Amino acid sequence: MGKNIYEGRYTTENDRDLVVFLIGMRINKRLAVRKWLPVFTAMPGMIRELCENQEELGFLSIENYFGLRTTVMITYWRSEEDLLAYSKGQKHLKAWKNFNRKIGDTEAVGIYHETYVVPAGRYEAIYGNMPVYGLANAAGHTPVTAAKRYAKKRLRTGTE
Question: How far, in Å, CA of 128 to CA of 124, rounded?
Answer without folding.
Answer: 14
